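Contributing new records

If you add data, match the layout below exactly. Sequence lines come first and carry their own label; structure lines follow with theirs. Keep one chain per record. Anything else will be rejected by the validation script.
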Amino acid sequence: MTEKRRVIIGAGKTEYPGWIATQEDELNLLKESDWLRHFQPDSIDCLLAEHIWEHMSFEEGIFAAENCYRFLKSGGYVRCAVPDAFFRNEWYQNLVQVGGPGPVNHPAVTHQIVYNYKQLQEVFERAGFVIDLLEYCDENGAFHYKYWNEGEGMIHRSFRFDTRNRKGILMMVSIILDAKKI
């Protein structure tokens, strides 16, 4: 049996056994040359992107999703998580807003969009993916959750794994979806 090729996009300090950790300077989602330097089309089983897509415009997000589609094997998927525009929590929305809350070294300073689940779903559908929503808030602020296996792509800023969520009180959520290449 061949070992699966699983890639963490924009990994930062995140490392998981059996996963290839990449940084933006070596695998920029928008640069085909970066992709081709490391991978062949239809060669990746899984891509993991935790809080990456909000750093691109909506149009760039579609282009990045198209690149992911090209390099994933049939049956492969992108597990993607981004901040949730429909989460009703003023502290959270201030933290994740476009341009960030300040200071200039805050990670959110380069946020270009805060997605709702429909927008994020559209980004990946336009690239040809079939979407499985795992966690998100709807237009009324209600949180929706579908069990997902963290061994298939761990998302720390999630209902189960973010330690800021305690005793049934949500403080940190993400839209989490699997975008599958059929």
